[in-house]
């Protein structure tokens, strides 16, 4: 079970790795997400408007997600998954990314409540940054 400082080091190394590979993490995730969300929605014969109504979102926001302009919050990802009848992992079109998310979840399970909250706040901040238009 990693301590807070170990978790911070793990996250910092991951961020450095992404920067070193010159792959902007948010756009990489957005591209994968948009492909699966649209694909799963169309498999069910749903319009963006139908999914938006079911998930409590707007048609325009669904469109922005599918076009790679926005990245949904974790809560909205969960609602999409629930409405589409799949896991959150199934929304992500990359086995590598899904494995990485599973690893992060396992790490989170081993943290105390205070550290989980701190990581969650940090993740929420990263999601907000990811949903902001690129400069």
Biggest β-sheet, characterized?
A: none
Provide the residue-averaged pLDDT. 75
| SS content category | mainly alpha
How far from one another are the termini? 38 Å
Low-confidence stretches: 19-34
Helix content: over 70%
Strand content: under 5%
**CATH domain class name:** Mainly Alpha
Annotation, overall tally of beta strands:
0
Judging by the overall fold, what is the CATH architecture? Orthogonal Bundle
Number of helical segments with 4 or more residues: 8
What's the gyration radius in Å? 16 Å
* Silhouette: elongated
SSE succession: HHHHHHHH
The CATH homology group name: lambda repressor-like DNA-binding domains
What is the fold named in CATH at topology level? Answer: 434 Repressor (Amino-terminal Domain)
Number of folding domains?
A: 1
Describe the overall structure.
This protein has 135 residues and is mainly α. It is built from eight helices and no strands. The longest helix is centred in the first third of the chain and has 19 residues. The relative contact order is 0.14.
């Amino acid at each position: 079970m990693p301590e807070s400082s170990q978790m911070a080091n793990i996250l910092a190394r991951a961020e450095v790795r992404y920067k070193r590979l010159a792959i902007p993490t948010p756009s990489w995730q957005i591209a994968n997400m948009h492909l699966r969300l649209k694909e799963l929605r169309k498999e069910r014969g749903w319009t963006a408007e139908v999914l938006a109504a079911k998930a409590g979102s707007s048609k325009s926001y669904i469109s922005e997600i599918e076009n790679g302009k926005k990245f949904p919050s974790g809560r909205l990802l969960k609602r999409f998954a629930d409405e589409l009848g799949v896991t959150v992992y199934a929304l992500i079109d990359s086995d590598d990314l899904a494995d990485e998310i599973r690893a992060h979840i396992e790490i989170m399970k081993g943290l105390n409540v205070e550290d989980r909250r701190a990581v969650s706040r940090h993740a929420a901040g990263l999601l907000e940054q990811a949903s902001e238009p690129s400069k």
